[in-house]
Amino acid sequence: MLLPKDEAELGAIVREADGPLWIEGGGTRGPVAARDGVRLGTSGLTGITLYEPGALTLVARAGTPLAEVEAALAAENQRLPFEPMDHRALLGTDGVPTIGGVVAGNVSGPRRIQAGACRDSLIGVRFVDGRGDAIKNGGRVMKNVTGYDLVKLLAGSHGTLGVLTEVSFKVLPVTPEQAVVILPGLSVGQAIAAMAAALSSPFEVSGAAHRPGGDVMLRIEGFAASVSYRAGRLVKLLAGFGPAEILREGVAAMWRDIGNGAQFSGTGQDVWRISVKPADGTAVAARLEGADLLFDWGGGLIWAGVAPGQDARAALDGIAGHATLVRATPETHARLGTFHPEPAPLAAIAAGLRAQFDPRGILNPGRMA
Amino acid sequence: MDMPIPDAGILARKAGIVALLQSVLPADAMIHEDRQVKAYECDALTAYRCPPLCVVLPSTTEEVSAVMKLCQEQGVPVVPRGSGTSLAGGALPTADSVILGVARMNDVLETDYGNRFIRVQSGRTNLSVTGAVEDDGFFYAPDPSSQLACAIAGNIGMNSGGAHCLKYGVTTNNLLGVTMVLMDGTVVEIGGAHLDAPGLDLLGVICGSEGQLGVVTEATLRILPKPEGARPVLIGFDSNEVAGMCVSDIIKAGVLPVAIEFMDRPCIRATEAFAHAGYPDCEALLIVEVEGSEAEIDEQLSVITAIARRHDPVELRESKSEEESAKIWLGRKSAFGAMGQINDYMCLDGTIPVTELPYVLRRIGEMSKEYGLDVGNVFHAGDGNMHPLILFDANKPGDLEKCEAFGADILRLCVEVGGCLTGEHGVGIEKRDLMVDQYDPVDLEAQLRVKDVFDPRWLLNPAKVFPLASTERRRAA
Ligand SMILES: Cc1cc2nc3c(=O)[nH]c(=O)nc-3n(C[C@H](O)[C@H](O)[C@H](O)COP(=O)(O)OP(=O)(O)OC[C@H]3O[C@@H](n4cnc5c(N)ncnc54)[C@H](O)[C@@H]3O)c2cc1C
User: How many domains does chain B have?
Assistant: First the structure.
C-alpha cells in the first residue's frame, strides 16, 4: 500500500499512476474487491492542524483517526454535530476510522435531523484530484460563498473526484444534559406519526428513531431545566399515542447503537440504508415484510436487514427516495449495485464531473456504481 | 469594472432573436423595447448598469426550458434573475444577454407538515415562504434582511444567509431539492423531500453557483416549527477586544444563541442619531438572542449575562418583554438606513475567523484614516461574517473608486487572516477580480471545470464570479 507523507508526495503518486488507485482511510468500510491497481492509504496524512474552540472551528488532515478528533473536541467540551457512525461492528471490519473517510462517505448519524449531515458541518477541504493537482475549496470560516461550493461536492464523493488531504469543520458545544422520551408498543404507522408530531413541535428533538416491535425514542439535549421542561411537554403532546416514559440513563449508548446499526451486527443479513420522506416509511416497511428494520431521522432513514441477495431497492418502486447497499457479498454488490441508479441526466452530469476531476478514471473507479 | 465586449452579431440579430423567443412564450412574457428593458439594467449594486438585449418572464418550467433551448441554439447568453436585490452585481445584464426573470413563478406547489417541507416556484419571495406556513406554526429559517423582496431563486443563487444562521444554517443547509433547467433546455430534478440525495451532492454545488449552472424553477425547502419565544440581551463594552472575547466565551460555554450581532462605535453613533434606540455610547455593542420557552430563555440569558459580567461591560440590558426586545433590535435593524442617511455607502461582506476580530477592526480603523473615508461595522459576530459599511460621496469625482479600493483592501485583509471574500452576498462582478487573492489558479480551474460540465458553451451568466481573463478562452470558444 502506498502511504504518502504529504500532499506533494500524494500528487506525484497520482500523476505517475498508470492504473486504478484504491483509496483507503481506515479501511473500516471493508476492503475493495480485489481488482487491478494499487492501494493508496491516507495514514501518512495525520494531525489536527488547527483547533479554535472559541471559533467553533477544527481543521485536520484526512488520515487523522476520528477518535483523535473526537478526543480533542471532548477535551474542550465540543463535538462533531453530525454524530458519525462507526461501521466496524456492522460490517465486521477492523481498522481505525479516519476523519477523511467520514467526509468521503458523508457519514451522518441520528442528530442529522437537527444539526445537519456531515456536509453541513464541513466548511473546507483540500484534495488531490485525478490529475495530481492539489486543490482547496472553502476554508476555515463558517460563512463562505466565495466561488462554487466544491466542499459539498467532495463530501460523499467516495474518493471518486479526489483524494482528500485536509478537512475543516464547524463544531458545536456538547450539551450538558440529555433525556429520551420513550413510547412503547406502537405500529410503524403510529410510530412515524408520533415522530412527526414530535419533530413538528418547538421542543427541539435531536434524535427520533423506532425499532418495529420496540419503542419510539425521542432524544432531547440541552441545559438541565430545559431538557426536563421539553421532555415533559413532549410527553403531554404525545399523550394520544399512549403512556410515555422519560429515560435519563444510558442515553448516549442507546443513540450510539442506533447510529451504528448495532442490531444488525453479525446477523448474516444483507443491510440496506433507505432514504425516503418519513411518511413513506410505512409503505416501504410493508413491502419489506420479514425484514429487520430500524427507522431513524423520524422515519426518513430506514435501515433494513434482509435475506442475503434480496433486492430491497424494489420496495421503492413508485416511491421517491433511494437505497444504498451497505452490507452484502461482493457478488450481491455487483449484481444489485451499491448505489441507487440515477436518472439519465443526473448520471450524465456526475459522469461529466468525474471526467473533469479524474480524466483518466483512476480514482476508485466504479466505487459509486 | 470591465465587462466583456458585447457580441455585435447578437446585437444585430436582436429582432430575430426576440421573434423566436416570442414564438415559445405568451405575448405578455417578453419585454424588448429600450425604454422598458431599462428597468432591468441593474440589481442592488446600482453603480453598474447595462440594459439587456431583452427580458423574458416565463410562468412555467416548460417555458423556461423552451427559452433556454432557443438561446443555446442561438448562442445567446442568459442572465437568470430573481428579484434583483443582489449586492454583488450577480444579476447585472450584458448588452447581448437575455434576462430570464422568474418573478412570475411564485406559487406554493405543496406544503407538507408531516414531512416538514414546502415546495415552491423559485420566484416566490423569501418572506412569503414563511408567510405560507406561519399560521400553522412553521417557518423557513434563512432570513436575509432583504427577505421582503428577495426571491428563493436568488437565495439559492447566492446561498444567502440571515441573522439566525448561527443556529439554523444558511440556504444550502435548508434546501432539499430543486427543479432546474440546464442551458440546453434539459429539465433535471435534484434531491427531493427526503433528507439526503444519492450520488454526488449536486444540490450542494448548485446552491451558491450564482446562476451559472442552470435556472432553478422550483425548490423544496425544509420548514421548521416556530420556537416558543425569543429574547435578546444588549451588552456594551469599552473595547472591541473584550467584546470579541465575550463572544468567544459565550460560544464556548455551550449556549447556542440564534444570533450574536456586533456593532462598533461609528455605527452605534450613526444609528443612535437616526433611530434613538437608546444604545450606550461605547466602543462595541453586542446583541445576543436566544430562543425557547420563557424558562429556557431565562436559563440561557443567565448564562450569557454571567459571562458578560466577567468582562466588565459598560451596559447590560436584558429584555424582559416584547417591547424591550423590539427596542434592542431597533438600532441594529436601522443600521444600514442610518449609515445611508449620512452618505452613500458600500456594504462589504467578508468573513474572518472570530478570533481575529479585534485585529481586523483595528486595521480597518487604520485604513479608514489612510483612505480618508469613514467606515462603520455591523456584523454577525457568531460566525465572523462582517459587514463593514464604507461611506463615500457618489457625486464627488473619484470617491467611488477610492471606496472600491478601500473595500478591496478590507476583503484582502479578511483573506489574509484566514477568512474569505464573501460570506453571504456572493462574488458577482463586484469581487470577481479579487478571486485570485483567495484562490490559486488550480483552485479556480477546478471550479471552471464544474461549469464546463453544466454549461459547456459558457452562456449562463458568463461574466460573473471568475476574473474575466481566467474565463476568456472558454467564453470565446
Ligand atoms: C437591503 C439589502 C439587504 C440584504 N441583506 C442580505 C442578508 O442579510 N443576507 C444575504 O445573504 N443577502 C442579503 N442581501 C443580498 C440579496 O438580497 C441576496 O443575495 C438575495 O438572495 C438575492 O435574491 P434575488 O431574488 O434578489 O436575486 P437576484 O439579485 O435577482 O439574483 C442573485 C443571483 O442569483 C442568480 N439567480 C437568480 N434567479 C435564479 C434562478 N432562477 N436560477 C438560478 N440562478 C438564479 C442571479 O443570476 C444572480 O447571480 C441584501 C440585499 C439588500 C439590497
Answer: 3
Looking at A221, A236, A260, which one is the last position of a domain? A260
Q: For A203, phi and psi rounded to 5 degrees?
A: -90, 15
What angle do the packed helices A224-237 and B294-310 form, to 10 degrees? Answer: 170
Q: Which residues from A are below 8 Å from B255, CB to CB?
A: 173
Check the CA dihedral B452-B458-B460-B466 and report its sign.
positive
Residue-range definition of the domain harbouring residue A16: 7-173
Phi first, then psi: give them for residue A124, nearest 5 degrees: -165, 150
| Count of CA atoms in the C-beta half-sphere (13 A) of A182 | 15
Strand B78-81 with B98-101, pairing: parallel
| Rounded distance between C-alpha atoms, residue B166 and residue A197, angstroms | 25
Same domain as A168, residue A182: no
Q: Tell me which chain A residues have a C-beta less than 8 angstroms from the C-beta of B163.
A: none
In Å, how far is B186's CA from the nearest CA of chain A?
8
User: B 235-254 residues with CB below 8 A of A?
Assistant: 247-249, 251-254
Into how many domains does chain A fold?
3
Q: What is the pTM of this model?
A: 0.97
**What is the best residue among B59, B85, B106, B465 to mutate for testing ligand 1's pocket, by most ligand atoms within 8 Å of CB?**
B85
Which CATH number goes with the domain that contains B242? 3.30.70.3450
Q: Which of B147, B211, B226 is nearest to B178 (CA)?
A: B211
Residue with the smallest CA separation from ligand 1 atom 21 is B155
Q: Which residue does chain B place closest to A117, by CA atoms?
A: B196
Distance from CA of B74 to the nearest CA of A (A): 22
Tens-binned pLDDT, residue by residue, of chain A (369 aa): 999 999 999 999 999 999 999 999 887 776 555 568 899 999 999 999 999 998 999 999 999 999 999 999 999 999 999 999 999 999 999 889 999 999 999 999 999 999 999 999 999 999 999 999 999 999 999 999 999 999 999 999 999 999 999 999 999 999 999 999 999 999 999 999 999 999 999 999 999 999 999 999 999 999 998 999 999 999 999 999 999 999 999 999 999 999 999 999 999 999 999 999 999 999 999 999 999 999 999 999 999 999 999 999 999 999 999 999 999 999 999 999 999 999 999 999 999 999 999 999 999 998 898
